[in-house]
Structure formats: C-alpha cells, structure tokens
Automatic annotation (TrEMBL), chain A:
The keyword Oxidoreductase applies. The gene is hdrA. Keywords: 4Fe-4S, FAD, Flavoprotein, Iron, Iron-sulfur, Metal-binding, Oxidoreductase. GO terms for molecular function: 4 iron, 4 sulfur cluster binding; metal ion binding; oxidoreductase activity. It comes from Geobacter hydrogenophilus. Its cofactor is FAD. This is Disulfide reductase. Pfam families: FAD_oxidored (PF12831), Fer4_7 (PF12838). The keyword tRNA-binding does not apply. InterPro entries: 4Fe4S_Fe-S-bd (IPR017896), 4Fe4S_Fe_S_CS (IPR017900), FAD/NAD-bd_sf (IPR036188), HdrA-like (IPR039650). Residues 234-263, 282-316, 585-614, 624-653 form the 4Fe-4S ferredoxin-type domain.
From TrEMBL, chain B:
Transmembrane segments: none annotated. The keyword Iron-sulfur applies. Residues 14-136 form the F420-non-reducing hydrogenase iron-sulfur subunit D domain. GO terms for molecular function: iron-sulfur cluster binding; metal ion binding; oxidoreductase activity. It comes from Geobacter hydrogenophilus. The keyword Oxidoreductase applies. InterPro entries: MvhD/FlpD. This is Heterodisulfide reductase subunit D.
Amino acid sequence: MSRIGVFVCHCGENIARTVDVEKVAAEAARLPGVAYATDYKYMCSDPGQNLLKNAVAEHRLDGIVVAACSPRMHEKTFRNAAKSAGLNPFLCEMANIREHCSWVHEDRDEATAKASDIVAMMVARVKKDKRLVPITVPVTKRALVIGGGIAGIQAALDIADAGHQVVLVEREPSIGGHMAQLSETFPTLDCSQCIMTPKMVDAANHPNITLHTYSEIESVDGYIGNFQITVRKKARSVIEEKCTGCGVCSAKCPQKKIPNAFDKNLGTRPAIYVPFPQAVPNTPVIDRANCTWFKTGKCGVCQKVCGPGAIDYEQEDRLIVEPVGAIVVATGFELYSITEKPKGSPIKGYGEFGHGTIPDVIDGLTFERLASASGPTGGKILRPSDGREPKQVVFVQCVGSRAREKGISYCSKICCMYTAKHTMLYKHKVHDGQAYVFFMDARTPGKSYDEFWRRAIEEEEAVYIRGMVSRLYQKGDKIVVMGSDVHVGVQVEIEADLVVLATAVQPRAGADTLAQKLGISYDSYHFYSEAHAKLKPVECATAGIYLAGACQGPKDIPDTVSQASAAAAKVMTLFAKDELEREPIVAKVNEKNCVACLYCKKVCPYGAVEEKEIRDRQGNLIRVVAYVNPGVCGGCGTCQASCPSKSVELDGYTDEQIMAMIEAL
Amino acid sequence: MHAHKENHAFEPKIVAFVCTWCTYAGADLAGTARLQYPANTRVVKFPCTGRIDPVFILRAFQKGADGVLVSGCHPGDCHYMAGNFHARRRFAAFRALLDFIGVDLNRLQFSWVSAAEGGKWVEVATELTERVRAMGPMREFRELETEEQWSGAIDTPELQAAYEAIP
Ligand SMILES: Cc1cc2nc3c(=O)[nH]c(=O)nc-3n(C[C@H](O)[C@H](O)[C@H](O)COP(=O)(O)OP(=O)(O)OC[C@H]3O[C@@H](n4cnc5c(N)ncnc54)[C@H](O)[C@@H]3O)c2cc1C
Ligand code: SF4
Ligand code: SF4
C-alpha cells in the first residue's frame, strides 16, 4: 500500500478564492493510499516546503502530490524539496488547480469538484510513478556558429578567446555579411570596412576557429552537449590549401562582365572571383554557371596561370562531420526585394513603385555600395542609369515595413536611422544636392540616435516630409514621386533624380529549412524564436542552441554585437561543466517482448532507435531487438504509441501511469 | 464580468489529452489571462501527441468520458520535430475505426493549440463541452463494460437473426 502525501496550496487567494481547499484536502485524505493530506497558504514558500519535507519524514511518505499552480511553474521547486527530504524527485507530482481550475472557473462548487478530480487523478498517477535517476551526458566543448556576419564573428571570437574550439560556417565565399557591404555606420559614421575587416581577419587567424566558407549545414543530429553536424563544403574549384590568394586567375579570366551581387549588381566580376577585395578568406571560387570551361569545356586560363596549381575543375562538394556541444545561429537578414516579386510569399510586391523596373529607384543597400569608398563608384553617388550625379534624392521609409496590407506588420527598426545616415552621406558628397525623406514616424531610440537624426535635419538640411508615397513613375530622365504631407495636409510631387527605398528587413530565404534541421522554432515571418521574449532572449527553446543578430529580428550593429556576446556567454556557461544532467524521460525497450519490427525506428524523430544484436556466449546471433540510445532520445514517446507489441515504454509516461489517471476519472 | 451560471440537466465529462509544450502551456495561458470556460475538462498531460495511444481514448470513453479532446502543437511546431505528424496519421486511421464501431465522431475532437493560444484553448474546450452536452451522455462503451455483453448470450433479435444466418 502506498503512503501518499497531498498538499493543497491556497496560493494566497489565487486558488482559495474559488476552490474550497480544505474540502479538497479532506477528500484527498479519503483516497486509497493517501496517508496524509493538508492545505497551506503558500506551498512554494520556505515554510511550505518545510511542511512538505517534515511530512515526508513524519508520515514515511513514498509519493507526493502538490495541488497548486502549473508544473511548468513549480515542478522543479517541489521535486527538489522532495529530493532534499530523501525522496526520489520523480515521485513528486503536481496537480494543476490554479491555471487549469481556480483561475478559469468562477463557480465555487464546480471548481472545488474539478480540483478534487484533478488531485485524484494525480494521486492515482503518483502511485504508479517509478524512481528515476537523472541521466548524465558528457559535454563536447566545441561550438558551431552558423553565419559569418558581425553576429557570428563576434560570437565565434568570444567563445574562441575563452579557450574553446569554434567551427564557423558561412554560406558565401567570404565572411562579413551585410556589415562588409556598408559604407559608414550610424551613429558615429565610422567606416564599416575599417572596423569590420580586422575582425574578419582575427576570426580567420584565430587558432581556435575553424572556418568553413562557401559551406552549408547539411544535417544536424544529437542534442545539447553532443551534436553531430554535417557540413557541406561546396566545390570551390580552387584548392584552399594551395591557393596563395595572389589574384592572377581573376585578373586573367576572360569572363569579366558578370554582375557582382556583393555590389548589388552595380559592378561586374570575373567567373573566378572573390566577392570583394578584403574578402576573408581571400581564396576565389569559380562561379560554374558563368565559367567558360564549365559551359563549353574550353578555356582553362585560370588553371594555366595559377602558379601553385590550385585550380581543380573536378572538385566535388565535400561532407565534413563536426562534433559540437553548442550551436549559435547567426544567419542574419535579407532586404525585401523590390526587383523580384517574392515568389510564393504571402508578401505583396510594390507595383506602384515600378517593381524595380525604374533603374534609378534603388534600395538602401545599393545606396551603401554607392557611398562606399571601396564600392563600384569609388564612393561617388552616381545614378545607375546614366552615371550622373543626382541633385535631388528622395528617400522613402517603411517600404514593406509596418504595412499590414502588404503582408509585414512589424517595424524594421534600422531604416529610420540608416536613412538619416544616407541623407548625411549624400550631403557630404554632393554639397549642392537636396535630400527629401518621406516618413511615417522617426523611431530613434538608442544612445545618441535622436541627436543623430536631428543633425540630419538641422545641419545637413534634409527635408523630412511626414506622409506616404503613393506612386513613382519615370518622366524623361526624372522620377516623379507622388506623396502626401500629412502635416500640411497637401499632396506633394517631387521630381527626383534618384529614389532610395528603405525596404523591410526579412529573414534569409531558407531560414525555415535551416530551422527544421536544427529543430528550432520560428515566427510567421521566419525570424527565429527565442525561448522567452524577456527573460531568455538569446536561448532557443531547443536546449543547446542560441541566437545572435538579425536572424532573430531586425537589429542594428550595437544590438547585434550585444546579443552575439550574450549568446557566447551562454555557450561558455554550458562549457563550464564537464557533464550535463538531463531529465530521465527516455524510452526503454523490453527486449523480451520486442519482435524487432523496428517500427519505432521508423517513427522516432530523433533517430534514437538502433538495432541491437543479442548473442549467446559463443557469439552466435540469437536475435535482433530495438535499442533506444538514452543520450539521443528526446522523450516524445512516439515509439511507444506506435509499437505493436507494446515493448517500448517511455519512463515518466508509462501506460500504467496514464491508465491510472484515466481510471481515476 | 461574471459569466451567467446556468443549470444544465447533464454535465458531460470531457477528457483532454494534450502535449506539454503547446496545448498544456496554452491552457496555462488561458489561466494566466483569467479567461473563463466550462469546468468539464480534465487534462491528461503527455510529452507529445505522438505518445497518445488510441487505446487511451477508448479507455477514457469506457471510464466515463462523454467527450475526448486531443490537442498538440501545430503541424511544423512540434517540440519533438515530428511527433505530431505521426499522431495526425495515427488518429486519421483511428477515427475511421471509431466511426466503424459506431462511436459518434462528434464526441472526439482533434485540434492544434499552441502555447500562445490561450483563447483558442478556451474556444475548443467550450465548443466541445457544449456540443457533447447537447448530445447527452455517452453510454455505449460503459454499458458494454458494466453489462458484460461479451458473455456470449444471444439476447437481442439482431444477434439472433445474425446467428441464424450463419450457414
Ligand atoms: C542599408 C543598411 C544600412 C545599415 N546601416 C547600419 C548602420 O549604419 N549602423 C548599424 O548599426 N547598423 C546598420 N545596418 C544594420 C546591420 O547591417 C545589421 O545590424 C547587421 O548586419 C546584422 O548582422 P548579422 O550578423 O546578424 O547578419 P548579416 O550581416 O546578414 O550576416 C549573416 C551572415 O550569415 C550568412 N548566412 C545566412 N544564412 C546562412 C546559412 N544558412 N548557412 C551559413 N551561413 C549563412 C550570410 O551569408 C551572412 O554572412 C544597416 C543595414 C542596412 C540594410
Ligand atoms: S591564381 Fe591560383 S593562387 Fe592565385 S588566387 Fe587564383 S587560385 Fe589562388
Ligand atoms: S521516445 Fe521513442 S520515438 Fe521519442 S525520441 Fe525517444 S526513442 Fe525516439
């Protein structure tokens, strides 16, 4: 016979107001197997926990039900209390009579009856609970960082400086991300390249950092402390170990007219190229789609001119397996594209803005490339159509952002600031030019941010017009911008030479695919979700995976770097331990019953089920059974519900435990 | 605002099988937000809808449930990646079986309620309660259990006819 203790909490007034707690305790006392039942004002308080601990000793309890709030709130608290009283923590259960009862029902009789039912169900369950021992797993003290923008670089450097190995995986041929494309940065106007390139070089040279560029995550297996990552190193057609980065190949490549995406297609590049001169690593890649050799089998110039013989046309994608203990996701953002109407996306295009058909309507990133000293124009602001210096430039904010009717309701956060920056850069370069800005509001919270914006208006004479633009059209070599000025209450028409659209910040295309590989969640826009908006802003709900930068939501550089360092700190906290404890909620196979149909293997989302051979002493194979690797098992129990011979059971959620609850109905 | 309390002749028992990560948390949220719904549901928590064996549903009906709700994470949001997909397939097959043995499928509700959908939890729980309340108690399974119709006695005209039809 069991000796169960039931503790009914008043939660101050929160439970006691609608539930007659004394009655619930009295009814619990009458349940078979209950040795002790009481009620108390605050079970989670120190005296409440002591009450529980003393009762365990005094009444020799072998199971506990605390009827109080949600187990998501205090299960840990009471299990720890049970543990310190010498009871196995998994023999302590909570009956949720607050969130599921007192808070959602008003009728006292009904709520009391329901609370008693919930307690009875949990008492029935606890009688079937088994002692469980937490599983300890070793921690691989190596981190994976996905994405080599400023977020990924910062996180990788911090972790590497703490003395741990880091694998940094970047999809593009070079690390750097968007920050490498920027000209000067708000709020201080320091040159982006000057602060970014040293960090890129540091990351590449760091003895603790292994860099895989032009690489992607193929698959992710395992769990916190013990992930197995397969990285696909795409074929560069250049042997990294041999290449000295001299650049002769690019110089001699006869294909020179390929639009350079890094320069937003303003400039061109050869078929064998590095995306920009300061690229890290400085190893080129062959763009096979545009290479004459790959298209026609003739040419081979780069191979002929390459001194160290680094060109390898036969190179194939390579798969590399990297064991790591923690993952930082830092895949950044993309700008909403006005040039291509997003395919299959719920987000609508901007037909009224010419959909990118007017060459002198550009986005913010293109303006950055124009303003960048190392950009295709050498830092001169020139119109893409005819290379003339524009004298009237119209900037339009919130294109795609805060536009529910277009499919995005959030604020992209950085555009107010970078547009103010653009008006300044423009004025610095074209002294007799005039900048106009159409805006909804100016959102400039941040240190020195509002002062920066005011400077654009007061010192650089940008004209801010509060209102939206309704239409853009080409008229001769001008672009007519039609909009409204809501302050004055009039329609405005400006004949501009150049129009810059501050388009919305969106997650990377394919962010959802990566999330599915990692098993992390994302919101309806595909920004990755943190575990708690306020208290766990860098952790994913999936243990061992952390977020940094714009992949989690629009962010400027200061916020990105802070989050990256925070994520790195979380990784270091994890790496401070040699072993991790995890809940022993894992499946076990009853080898006597298992018929090795291995249906469990098919359904297990974690790939935790293996085949185990049972042999006799002579080593003869007797039969095969399923085996669940407790380190890999996620504890979902899908195998158990699928097993036709009922030979696999999930600890903590056994058929007996569940059936006991149902029978107590 | 106080919900007007009505007295109903019959109060159904609803058993809700839910996963910890989404629907249990959604029901918690309904509590935190102090939303109100009928007191008929009894929640049984699972790690994942993937763990829910159809036998549990049968057993619940046998043991006095008048309605059963099964709810987990939205497709694609499963904490265990794919458990809810397995559940979905399993329950699709299981519904057909229940239908075949004559259980009114209106007593069984499958839904997805996320951790953020306290309001949806209230809607689903209220709707099922009201629907089942109108249907009256679920007798079939309980009678089977109590009256032990498995005894083999041929005690209805239908059975008699069926028996005679055996060549
Ligand atoms: C026009 C413009 C101007 C701006 N000006 C300023 C400014 O003046 N000051 C300021 O503070 N901020 C500015 N910002 C914001 C700044 O660019 C961002 O805060 C910063 O770039 C975010 O860094 P990140 O590392 O999170 O993302 P990113 O810079 O986007 O880097 C992400 C990296 O991850 C890689 N990646 C993506 N997917 C994968 C994958 N699946 N596998 C491997 N690698 C992947 C990408 O190739 C990229 O290298 C500006 C932004 C824009 C658009
Ligand atoms: S010529 Fe050879 S060594 Fe020089 S950059 Fe090209 S591939 Fe590298
Ligand atoms: S409980 Fe079963 S199905 Fe789920 S992860 Fe563990 S072994 Fe796989």
